[in-house]
Amino acid sequence: MINIQALENEILNSIQVADTLEAIEAIRLDVVGKNGKLTQAMKNLAQLSPDEKRQAGQTLNSFRDRFTTSLQEKKSQIELVLLESQLQNERVDVTLPVDGAASGHLHPITRVIDEVTQIFAQMGFCVAEGPDIETDHNNFTALNIPETHPARQMHDTFYLKSTSEDGSPLLLRTHTSPVQVRTMMGQQPPIKIIAPGRTYRCDSDQTHTPMFHQIEGLYIDLAEKVHMGHLKSCIETFCRTFFDSSTLPIRFRPSFFPFTEPSAEIDIGCKRTKEGIQIGAGNDWLEIMGCGMVHPNVLKNCGIDPEIYQGFAFGMGVERLAMLKYNIPDLRTFFEGDSKWIQHYGFFPFATGYRTQEDVA
Ligand code: DAH
């Protein structure tokens, strides 16, 4: 039988001097590993008489308990030291200068929404919002687009499985025009709002993405206060300010929208070259938005008396404006989340330089 006391002294000594987790593991294997000293001693118990076996067994067991405890204690101490040194090494020096290359950029969509909002804010419009999930009623019916109207098919709508509380089917709004409905339902004129936001259509190719952005405008007031002339000057001011050109050619081309009468599409003068489109030059035209005088049925549907009030509305696509103004050739790149793209086309968030009406006047 081995001398337990001598073994214990030797082992406790080696635990004391161990200062790495590897050394601890080596000691563990040396004592209780498959061929460890204590394992061996336990095996040897078989050769003893029952009485000796009981006594020696107790001694070995209590030794194993003391061994396990002191090995575990030492292991915890070493781990603590390691953790502290790791924390020390990984400390971040917050006083070091910031890496300038890591600064963020505004997405062109954000920038264009800000620019458009500023221009209309100067003309007295405030911002209104509505949800991306709309009722079929607000997106179509209230806007004078009845169920049988072909415009419903044209919009390639994403319908949801559920319906709203009043039974109207739910959908992802196909345009920002339902914000007109929500605003008119909630207040009487004068109303002067623009509504930027996300819109959705089941459409995806080089010039269409299933999610895109629009900005809607609505001005309703006493009939004698707002007519088509106001619409024209409002849109002209916007286009010339936004494209930074006081001589930008603009034309109102008769069109059709169910929610306006009369309706028009706005074209701006441009030149198409191999490199892209040059705004304000040449004798080509480019469509940039729809507009018109709000249809009396829409006013009626929203609780506004068309005998007393009238007004105009307009709607434009944000991506299109951004592509034209900042020469971005491919629509799909807007939504790829490529940080190199945003460094190239994006805007430094703290730059001033939003164009205002004064800049153009
Ligand atoms: N909602 C139309 C669309 O998505 C855009 C539009 C055209 C909005 C004329 C208007 C408007 O308010 O008067 O194509």
Automatic annotation (TrEMBL):
Compartments where found: Cytoplasm
GO molecular function, a single term: magnesium ion binding
Catalytic reaction list: tRNA(Phe) + L-phenylalanine + ATP = L-phenylalanyl-tRNA(Phe) + AMP + diphosphate + H(+)
CDD domains: PheRS_alpha_core
Top EC class of this enzyme: ligase
Cited InterPro entries: aa-tRNA-synth_II, aa-tRNA-synth_II/BPL/LPL, Phe-tRNA-synth_IIc_asu, Phe-tRNA_ligase_II_N, Phe_tRNA_ligase_alpha1_bac, Phenylalanyl-tRNA_Synthase, tRNA-bd_arm
Keywords (A to Z) from UniProt: Aminoacyl-tRNA synthetase, ATP-binding, Cytoplasm, Ligase, Magnesium, Metal-binding, Nucleotide-binding, Protein biosynthesis
Membrane spanning residue stretches: none
Residues noted as binding Mg(2+) in the record, renumbered to the chain: E261
A biological process term (GO) from this entry: phenylalanyl-tRNA aminoacylation
Gene Ontology cellular component list: cytoplasm
Needed co-factor(s): Mg(2+)
Cofactor: record remark: Binds 2 magnesium ions per tetramer.
Enzyme Commission code: 6.1.1.20
PROSITE patterns: AA_TRNA_LIGASE_II
Domain Aminoacyl-transfer RNA synthetases class-II family profile span(s) in chain numbering: 110-349
Quaternary structure (record): Tetramer of two alpha and two beta subunits.
Family statement: Belongs to the class-II aminoacyl-tRNA synthetase family. Phe-tRNA synthetase alpha subunit type 1 subfamily.
Record-given protein name: Phenylalanine--tRNA ligase alpha subunit
Species assigned in the record: Candidatus Bodocaedibacter vickermanii
